[in-house]
Amino acid sequence: LLLILKSQYMQRSLQYLGKYAFIQRETRRFWKDLRQTNPFHAPILIHREAALLELP
Fold it and tell me: Is the CB of residue 32 less than 8 Å from the CB of residue 42?
């Protein structure tokens, strides 16, 4: 029983790490493409998103 629980735990851990690595890689690629396309546009987008998140 303990061996089964350990293997399920390992499977879930590896799944989580895989998803995290994928999201991190895609996010990095998105910002890299955005900066290469228009290097002055990325800071404007970040500022605009931050302004939208501010509470009144």
Answer: no
